[in-house]
Each structure stands twice: as C-alpha cells, then as structure tokens.
Amino acid sequence: xxxxxxxxxxxxxxxxxxxxxxxxxxAYRMAQAAYASDSLATYSVFGEEDAISLRERIELAYEVLxxxxxxxxxxxxxxGEPLPPASAGSAFELERERPARNEPKPLAPxxxxxxxxxxxxxxxxxxxxxxxxxxxxxxxxxxxxIAQVTKINPTYLRFLEEERFDDxxxxxxxxxxxxxxxxxxxxxLSAVVPSYMERFETGRIARKRSRQGQPV
Length: 216
Prior knowledge:
- The chain has eleven helices and no strands.
- The protein is an all-alpha fold.
C-alpha cells in the first residue's frame, strides 16, 4: 500500500476509478469520519498537523471526483495526458495554495437535495433508532462499515437502531456512540445527539419504573 502522501484521489478515498457518484460520496463520508479531529484513528496514528493536512487532501479529492468535468480532467492526468493550464479552482491546485479548513465540507447540493426529506422528517419529532437506521441505509452504509470507522462494537450500533436501551452501556458512552454514528451518516450532531439521548434517558426511566411496579 502506498504511503498516504503518494496516493491519488481514488486511492485516498479507497474507491476504484470506475466508482459512481454514490460510491464516492459514501467513501468521502467514511474518510471524513475516520480522520475527524476527535476520531481514534487520528489520535493513534497522526500528529495534529499531519491530520489537518490529510483532511485537506480528503476534501480536495472529494471536490475533484464529485465534479464530472474536473474528474474527467483528473482521469486524463492519471492516464498521462497533458494537464490543463493552471487556473483558479483548478482540479490540480496545490494543497499549500488552499486555505486551511477545520470544518468538514458540506454535502454537495445534489446530495443535500437527496436527503432533504430525511432532515425535514427528523426535524418535526426528533431522531429515534428507526430514523438513524433509515439515514444509514439511504447513504448505502452497512453497520460493519460504521463499526470499522468508529471502533464501536457493531452489536452496540444495532442496539442503538433497535432502541434496546437496557442493553447499552452508561449514558456517557451512548452519547459518544450516537455522535460517531451520526457523523458517519453525515447528520447534524447538534440535532441528533440531544434528541436521541432524550429518548434514551426516558426509555430507561420507564423500564426501571415498570420493573419496580410503578406507573410509567
């Protein structure tokens, strides 16, 4: 496997040169989550400067491969065709010429449009396990993929979706699980985490009262 600094855009996102836009979108989200500033991968492998540089390269790879025209030009460069003249916004701009970014790049407009219904649905009544599962499936992600990125046991991820609150660990851990899950799915953590944790706390209290014979 090539060192990260020598990988092209496809290798960096771990997709083939024939990947369709959906595959590129999913790979970008997975890479974005894997190398987020608070991810285990970042802390255990990279220093802060290296991690920032890597996130910049991931952003650039996605920008190029998600734009059909820029992708065609980039593919031509990989095949040995002459590069187009350098210009503002070129697919081949150098990383050092790009402004530093600490925030993840928003979804492209087309991708946002595809998921507007999900966000509108969740905004009315919050996020429950079923909505998390739908968010994951609409992005074409498997639980095992999320587990690989977040280092969370896939059994716990399944318990989140099934709202098996009694089988989950303490609330502090569940909060982290939900945040990592939401990040992998490209969801707004500030909306998902409080909403789900409210259901989690309410559900546990209800079950406790039920076991004690108290009214729920």
